[in-house]
Design goal:
By secondary structure, this protein is an alpha+beta fold. Helix content is 34%, strand content 19%. The strands form 5 sheets. The protein has a 5-stranded antiparallel β-sheet with strand order 4-3-14-13-12, sandwiched between helices.
Length: 377
């Protein structure tokens, strides 16, 4: 250890007013210097002893906690010949999330919000309660049709189709390319279009591993009409997707009586259906992203299709949407939107009002967007 250097010059000696000799003065400074050295040595000994005691009683480990956070790190190392006993544990980032759905109020009797990429359920309300779904049934209708018939096939609208409730402007005897009629039916929620599609697809029964398209010579069961076989195919597909609370009685979702709906499902089941389509048939619901579109049948008849989803043009990153409303079902809506960075979110609301379904979906979509944003930022 280096002791302090004392420099005695003539000025120091001249300022010695006590009359002590120079030799005695040097001796006095020497005593002071030795005293300082002993004090410093003593302090060093005490510090070393405390450090050694701490290391022996903590196994060489020091727990460091960062102020204002929950991050901790366990550090260790070799100190004065002690071997390292603990590998360094890197701090883990801890993010405190705010539940943005906590105080949400919606009209819908059931709802479900789902992050497709992570498989996270962001919000649920009576998710497994079976409810009438009205025209959301047409999403399954479109899926079964698309997996049964080539999209270049032709569909003829029959008078029986036109007789159904609602008038979307289709005409009996009008011929449509399959893909065009699918798009028109989904955008306008056309009951006429859904009936025409189901009738033609029902004449092409198919066997399913995942999906096996049949040819026109495949026999239709004798005890079933083409429409009945198509409805059976809808229910078979629902079971294959794990839609346990779903049953279809018709292809449109129209109420059969004042007490019986044409289709029942749950918010969770419908989310499974949308998820399957987004992953496996991403272009099927592409037309439902648009507010309107002009379509022409092969007869040259022009139709203007207007989307029944009034919020379609205000939903950023919209990937798919479908509305539904009947007296029994109330207002229903399913939407899929990209929240950013390729993160699709499904929002399903059931049992709301005509206008309330759009407000509900907007509220839930905004909360979902902000929730996902917490992960990004």
């Amino acid at each position: 250890m280096n002791l302090p250097i004392i420099d005695l010059n003539k000025k120091d000696i001249q300022n010695n007013e006590s009359g002590v000799s120079e030799a005695a003065l040097f001796d006095r400074f020497s005593v002071v210097s030795n005293t300082n050295a002993f004090v410093l040595l003593g302090l060093f000994t005490i510090i070393f002893g405390l450090t050694l005691f701490f290391i022996q009683n903590t196994d060489g480990r020091v727990l460091v906690k960062e102020e204002g956070s929950k991050n901790t790190a366990l550090l260790s190392g070799t100190f004065y010949g002690l071997e390292e006993k603990q590998q360094e544990e890197l701090p883990v980032k801890v993010v405190i999330y705010k539940d943005l759905f906590e105080n949400i109020k919606i009209e819908a009797k059931a709802a479900y919000v789902f992050d497709i990429n992570t498989g996270s359920v962001l919000y649920e309300k009576n998710k497994n309660v079976q409810r009438p779904i009205a025209s959301l049934a047409k999403v399954m209708t479109a899926l079964v049709v698309s997996e049964t018939i080539d999209e270049r096939g032709l569909v003829t609208v029959r008078s029986e189709d036109i007789a159904l409730e609602g008038n979307s402007g289709l005409r009996a005897g009008e011929n449509w390319r399959l893909k065009d009629l699918l798009d028109f039916t989904l955008m306008t929620s056309s009951n006429d279009g859904a009936s025409a599609l189901a009738s033609i697809a029902g004449t092409f029964p198919f066997l399913r591993d995942s999906v096996t398209t049949a040819t026109s010579d495949t026999a239709l069961p004798e005890d079933m009409s083409s429409k009945e076989f198509f409805i059976k195919s809808m229910n078979d597909h629902a079971r294959s997707l794990g839609m346990e609370n779903t049953i279809f009685y018709n292809e449109t979702g129209l109420d059969i009586t004042d007490l019986r709906s044409g289709a029942y499902s749950s918010a969770h089941d419908l989310a499974l259906l949308f998820e399957y389509i987004i992953k496996n048939e991403p272009t099927l619901l592409e037309a439902t992203r648009k507010g309107s579109a002009e379509m022409t049948s092969t007869n040259g008849i022009l139709h203007v299709a207007r989307n029944t989803n009034q919020g379609v043009e205000f939903t950023s990153g919209l990937l798919a949407s479908k509305t539904g409303y009947t007296d029994l079902a109330g207002g229903n809506l399913g939407v899929v939107f990209d929240s950013g960075l390729g993160t699709p979110i499904i929002v399903v609301v059931l049992g709301s009002s005509v206008e309330g379904r759009f407000r509900d979906a907007e509220i839930l979509s905004e909360a979902a967007l902000n929730t996902v944003g917490q992960d990004i930022f």
